[in-house]
Amino acid sequence: MQATRIAVHGASGRMGRAVLREAVLRGDVVVAAALVGAHSDSLGVPLTRMLGADAPDLPCAATLDDDVQASVVVDFSLAGAFDDALAMARRHGLAFVSGTTGLSPAQHAAMDEAAATIPVLWSANFSLGVAVLARLVGQAGRLLADWDCEISEAHHRAKRDAPSGTALALGRAIASARGVAFDDVARFSREGIDAPARARAEIGFAVTRAGDIVGEHSVLFATDGERLDLAHRATDRAIFARGALAAARWLTVQPPRRYTLDDLLAARADQASTADVGA
Ligand SMILES: NC(=O)c1ccc[n+]([C@@H]2O[C@H](COP(=O)([O-])OP(=O)(O)OC[C@H]3O[C@@H](n4cnc5c(N)ncnc54)[C@H](OP(=O)(O)O)[C@@H]3O)[C@@H](O)[C@H]2O)c1
User: How much distance in Å is there from the Cα of 13 to the middle of ligand 1?
Assistant: First the structure.
């Protein structure tokens, strides 16, 4: 497979830089464009200055020129900048990968609409390990339907939303596997000297905000006499960049549709089992 040419939207941010750094390290991805906001301090700044001598000698730009040969837009920006990124991908007929969070229902609907003409993959968490964890907790939730379930997560001190979108997604996966409505069973706080006793079906959430923790999620299933812990720890933002680049490479050879990271996992598993059969 040829190298995938990516246009990184939100190039000056923490994740944008992580994607660019990862791309520079790999031989299968080429940075075709680094996109920043029209008023960005990074506008015109060459990637070599941002990332070092190994980076392509390419200035950060505010728009994707028609002569730029890219096959996919990789967006990690802000909810307020997301519409521009999606519009750019649509206008140029490029695949669209996004990890931008805090999107409105209208922005999700816009991705559904765009998916009629371009392949689109959005994920709140590009860790492949978390994608597997979501599958595992769904299975465990179904098989251990009457066990107590508690989810805890820890992130760096600057993270504002709580519980994390990933913790909520894990809770939703468990509720859905158990055939119950998430809002009926989610319990976000317990306090006081006479807090209500734990309801049987409850899914409890606990949140830690401290230091520079990149992201930790753990799901506990417990009953009398035994417990099962399923956990994921991210120690480096690069994992999200790697997941997004894996998605970008895969997406460019898929037909227009809305995809999830789980689709990528399934495709990889199919490929591995076909290779086993052929061996
Ligand atoms: N899905 C995942 O796995 C995952 C993992 C981590 C983070 N995230 C999400 O990814 C997003 C970015 O996170 P971050 O930590 O990188 O945030 P950040 O450091 O604040 O970066 C966001 C960048 O967006 C850029 N931006 C703003 N307006 C723009 C525009 N009109 N066009 C292009 N770029 C624009 C800003 O750059 P300028 O001001 O220089 O333009 C800023 O550097 C957030 O939504 C975060 O929650 C997702």
Answer: 5
Instruction: Give the Cα-Cα-Cα angle 61, 52, 99 (nearest 5 degrees).
Output: 55
Using the mean position of ligand 1's atoms as its centre, give its distance from the Cα of residue 34 in Å: 13
Q: Which secondary-structure segment (H or E) carries 181?
A: none
**Residues labelled as active-site residues:** 155, 159
Convert the pLDDT of each residue in 125-172 to its tens digit. Answer: 999 899 999 999 999 999 999 999 999 999 999 887 789 889 999 999
In this structure, the number of other CB atoms found within 10 A of the CB of residue 239 comes to: 21
- Of 64, 78, 84, 104, the one to substitute when testing ligand 1's pocket (max ligand atoms within 8 A of C-beta) is 78
Question: How many other C-beta atoms are found inside a 10 Å radius of the C-beta of residue 119?
Answer: 22
The pTM of this model reads: 0.87
Check pocket membership of 126 for ligand 1, CB cut-off 6 A: yes
